């Protein structure tokens, strides 16, 4: 066998710089560094966040000579669509994206009569290791950058504005951090993304913070930090069990922060933000769906600013677990309601395209 020399390009450690990573002041400084007038940063930002374009040809308000360079330097493409699958007559659309280093992430757009929800990823893979979740099985590849997270939303907004989603031109109204990853384990980039999502143009997309949900396994210090950000986003806590014995196995980080500690952090969050906290609970047949557990959960949540989202388990390939029987699900709901706790069973949009929780961890929050 003859020896072969292959040239291996040096791996870039980080995604390219993008204007969505930067504050307005930083964008103006970056543009000035490129020898352009600072206000060009505002024009570029409006192209990205208002018109969702990265095509220099369309940026007729910028000098032709500068467009390519500004776009290359501040709006490099970060996501490459690998695959797109739609269902529900095109109203649900899942996209598999490749990042610059080959890492894969997914996002889902779900159109409803009154809103459009986008479910976005915050990490390639996830390190939380929850045994019922498809992402958890593969482990963590890496954190996503702010701009990589934001670009998923911009791609959806672009498709909606271009009338590519049935139902006429539309806008993204809700964002849920329920795709791949544990958002609070990539805190800085996620907060940056939330800021870009809620800041009005030219700084960002101008989506109401009330429409943004950050879902977490319950990283207590990060929940407290989030409460102090002054961003009134909805917090969703993936509880899945009301007792430590079971939760230790379903959400392994529970061995670090127990149910009581996680819920205390949730109530502090509700007190500071005045926002109702969502409790996520995947109903798994004969594992966590017993009436006594509903009762225990009801007692823990009674009288609190809370809403329970029950999610029929979406079995992952090879999983021994499956969704609860309908009668057990109904009994669970009734038990919770008997404690005066608000509860809904989540719609499982996109299940047939593996776009429901777990394969994609796609989900729909309650409307806040
Ligand atoms: N890491 C974050 C966000 C991603 S998962 C979190 O855990 O909250 C979004 C939601 O989908 C979480 O509540 C998660 O527990 C749930 N989920 C994951 N796999 C699921 C599955 N197979 N069936 C139902 N829900 C699932």
Describe the structure in your own words.
This protein is α/β, with parallel strands linked by helices. It folds into 2 domains: 19-74, DNA polymerase, domain 1; 77-362, TIM Barrel. It is 32% helix and 18% strand. It has helices at 24-33, 40-49, 64-74, 134-138, 146-161, 187-198, 220-227, 244-250, 259-273, 291-301, 326-338; strands spanning 80-87, 92-98, 104-111, 116-119, 123-125, 140-143, 174-177, 212-216, 234-238, 277-283, 306-312, 342-345. A 10-stranded mixed beta sheet has the order 1-2-3-4-7-8-9-10-11-12, with helices on one face. A two-stranded antiparallel sheet has the order 5-6. The termini are far apart. The site of S-adenosyl-L-homocysteine has 20 residues, from strand 8 and strand 10. Residues 128, 130, 132-133, 178, 182, 215-217, 238, 280, 282, 311, 313-314, 316, 357-358, 361, 363 line the site of S-adenosyl-L-homocysteine.
Describe the sheet with the most strands.
10 strands, mixed
SS element count, helices: 11
E-strand count? 12
Can you tell me the residue ranges where pLDDT is under 50 for at least 5 consecutive residues?
360-368
The CA-CA distance between the termini, in Å, is 65 Å
């Amino acid at each position: 066998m003859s020896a072969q020399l292959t040239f291996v390009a040096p791996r870039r450690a980080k995604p390219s710089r993008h204007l969505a990573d930067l504050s307005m002041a930083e964008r103006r400084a970056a543009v000035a560094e490129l020898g352009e007038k600072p206000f060009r940063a505002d024009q570029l930002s409006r192209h990205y966040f208002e018109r969702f374009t990265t095509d220099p040809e369309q940026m007729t308000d910028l000098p032709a000579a500068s467009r390519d360079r500004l776009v290359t330097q501040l709006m490099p493409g970060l996501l490459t669509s690998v695959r797109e699958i739609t269902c529900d007559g095109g109203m649900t659309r899942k996209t598999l994206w490749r990042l610059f280093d080959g890492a894969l992430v997914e996002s889902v757009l779900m159109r409803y009569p009154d809103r459009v929800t986008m479910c976005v990823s915050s990490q390639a893979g996830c390190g939380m290791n929850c045994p019922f979740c498809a992402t958890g099985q593969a482990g963590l590849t890496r954190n996503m950058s702010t701009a990589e997270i934001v670009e998923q939303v911009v791609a959806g907004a672009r498709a909606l504005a271009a009338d590519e989603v049935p139902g006429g031109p539309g806008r993204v109204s809700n964002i849920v951090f329920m795709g791949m990853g544990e958002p609070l384990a990539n805190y800085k980039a996620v907060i940056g993304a939330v800021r870009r999502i809620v800041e009005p143009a030219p700084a960002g997309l101008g989506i109401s913070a009330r429409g943004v949900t950050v879902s977490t396994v319950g990283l207590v210090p990060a929940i407290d930090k989030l409460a102090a950000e002054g961003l009134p986003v909805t917090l969703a806590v993936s509880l899945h069990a009301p007792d430590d014995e079971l939760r230790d196995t379903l959400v392994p980080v529970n061995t670090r922060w127990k149910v009581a500690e996680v819920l205390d952090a949730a109530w502090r969050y509700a007190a500071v933000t005045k926002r109702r906290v969502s409790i996520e609970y995947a109903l798994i047949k004969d594992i966590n769906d017993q009436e006594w557990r509903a009762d225990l959960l009801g007692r823990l949540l009674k009288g609190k600013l809370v809403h329970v989202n029950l999610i029929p388990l979406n079995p992952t390939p090879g999983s021994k677990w499956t969704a609860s029987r309908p009668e057990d699900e109904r009994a669970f709901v009734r038990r919770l309601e008997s404690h005066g706790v608000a509860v809904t069973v989540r719609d499982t949009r996109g299940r047939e395209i593996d776009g429901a929780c777990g394969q994609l961890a796609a989900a729909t929050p309650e409307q806040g």
